[in-house]
Amino acid sequence: MGFLDWLRRGRGRIGRNDWVWLTEPEKLAGLAREAHARLAAGESVLLVAHFRDTLVRAATAVAGSGVALQARPTWTARDTADLLRPGAAFATLASALPEPDGAAAGTAPSGNPVAVLAAELHALRAANDRMAAFVRTLPQGSSLRAFLALDEPLMRPFANDRVRNLMQTLGLKHGDRIDSGMVTSGIRRALAKLEQGAIGDGPAETAQEWYDRYHRH
Fold first, then answer.
1. 132 neighbors 6 (Cβ within 8 angstroms)
2. From the CA atom positions of the chain, what is the Rg in Å?
3. Rounded distance between C-alpha atoms, residue 191 and residue 34, angstroms
4. Which of 38, 81, 108, 192 has the highest CB neighbour number within 10 Å of its CB?
5. In CATH, what number is assigned to the domain containing residue 31?
6. Dist. CA 175–CA 28, nearest whole Å
């Protein structure tokens, strides 16, 4: 079962498309704007990343924009309860989230809907599925969306000349957000190819470190 399938079957919802920018600084600015928008709409916000380096940069951007973001190095049931309170804004690693448990997604808990903002996607589908499974345990109206940049290490196989030429044809400029089903599908195919080349998994501070250690070159 893939990243999208978890949410299509459950209470949560995912943005129809990933949101993609040309560069990471543009992505981080967009992530901060969306955190503000979700909080203003009355939702709670959970910022998630797979690698500590990404989480630190994303959290710095969001907190620097004025969001009172709280770090959660580990995740417990108490953290989930606190997240469901209006105005809550937390940041954690995806690996800290609870293991997927189908039984936990049976009855919708009461509480504030949560916007889960994923600051990156992993090459391994199971890592992304973990975020999606967590959203299925949250109150009705909770959501998950991935924020990506074409200059990030795991996006480079996708960000080829053909894609860049297409963006130029569409008139996209630096700072513009790409919201396209075709681009989202292309990213999923590129990540699937990366996963085929994986030779294991383990701790890494950055996406580049993970690629260098656990991917066949």
1. yes
2. 17
3. 24
4. 38
5. 3.40.50.300
6. 11
> Is there a contact between 11 and 106 (Cβ–Cβ < 8 Å)?
no
What single DSSP character describes residue 217?
-
| Pairing mode, strands 89-93 and 44-49 | parallel
Of 153, 145, 117, 197, nearest to 17 by C-alpha is: 145
d(CA 20, CA 205): 22
If residue 104 lies in a helix (H) or strand (E), which one and from where to where?
none
Report the domain count for the chain.
1
SS3 assignment for 149-216: ECCCHHHCCCCCHHHHHHHHHCCCCCCCCECCHHHHHHHHHHHHHHHHCECCCCCCCCHHHHHHHHEC
- 3-class secondary structure, 56: helix
| pLDDT tens readout for residues 11-48 | 445 556 899 998 899 999 999 999 999 999 999 999 99
Largest CA distance in the chain: 49
pTM reported for the whole predicted model:
0.88
* Residue 142 backbone phi and psi in degrees, to 5: -70, 155
What's the domain range around 153? 3-214
